[in-house]
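SAMPLE LOG
Freezer: B-3
Tube label: C17
Construct: single chain, 460 aa
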Amino acid sequence: MNPVNANPRENRIPDTHSVALIGLCFFLASTGYLAWLYHIMPMVAPQTADLLSLGAGYLFQAAGLGLFALLLSRSNRSAAHILRAVLIMLCLCLFPAVLADGLSVTAGFGFALNILCGMLSGYFLYILTCETETGNSAITLGLGYSLSIVASWLLSLIAGRSSSYTLTILLVCLLSAAAVFLLSCKGRKPQPPEADEPAGENHAVSSSDAPFGSLLLLTGGLVFLFSIVNTCGFGFPSADFSGNVNLELSRLFYAAGLIIAGIANDQSRRLGALCAFASLIIPFLMLALRGEAFPLMIFWGLSYFAFGFYSVYRIILFSDVAREKHLLWLSGFGLLIGRVGDALGEILHVVFSGHYSVLIILNAVLFILAVFLFYRIQRFLYAPDDRTMHFDLFSSRHDLSLRERDVLRLLLQEKTNIEIADALSVSESTVKFHVHNILQKTGCRNRVALLALYAGSRNA
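STRUCTURE (predicted):
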């Protein structure tokens, strides 16, 4: 991206309102989903439970994400109005989904529940895109997810598996839905990025000449392949629950991966992509070691830890696209495509269960395709353009601090001291101090000389 036009307000401090709202939404969706999974498991064989929950359930979540995007782009209703309807219907579907005795009723309302969970995910990803900046969006997402996972673990310690477990979960979900509603009302109104808002340096989408449609297709394909490889390699089989696997405890490793991935992605989108790519080694490791004398919790912990890197990457990738291109309905497409890939990977894992050599070969082929796509698009997504390199070189040559670089970006846009102070949320005297230091370090008498020096160094 063009550093001269980079947004100086970008920071890496998590947005507290977004963290709370994302955490509550994810807690509500995941708690309802897990309650449905626990209810359906005794009714069917483990592999059937996997196909219903991780296969069909994820496909219905993807449908919910698509429905939210459609309503957001075509309807006159705001995201807040859509959220209220989703919360009401989610609570209504949750009761029969986790209380019904028959499989058909449980599955039917469970699938409806998954659609609504997908729509709820679409809402909080819209909030993530609107309320956060590029420099703190990944850690905001990772922290929100992680807090909800820790809350789920604490809830499992309190509720246990007693006869009152389901009633406790239902009560918690109702309270969570109310909290989401109140927080969405009391928080600041989400504002879409202005059409002329400068893009940050850390955006996933570069200002290359690549056609947007083609780049979007390739990026979606990469996310899709990542998802299949990740889920096909391990599958998170519910049969392991009988082998002393504590799902809520293993998800704490997921929380750790999410936080580390959030920090990595905000530090550099390229670093986040490489971490997500490297995490795909773990599914191969799981396949190779499956059947060996390792505690099942090690498999689950490692798989969830790796999944944290990928989860953040696929969401942030499309959130960046939606923010930069001002297409907010695209905010949840990373998760939408990922859920379809997750479902397909789970189906393949179940179909070829026991034939691990086939799964290894299949994963290897898909991984090679992912490498090919990543190579095709990385130069468009993550390679800095000439203007970025020139700005960094100029700043390093004159030993400018991070804050002085923020001021320089605005000086190059010919902003006044008052405008710079407003953009950076500092006093005008502080701006004058930094401008004085920049002029002194560059040996320029005034701003005109500084602009001439910068332009001359670019042409040199």
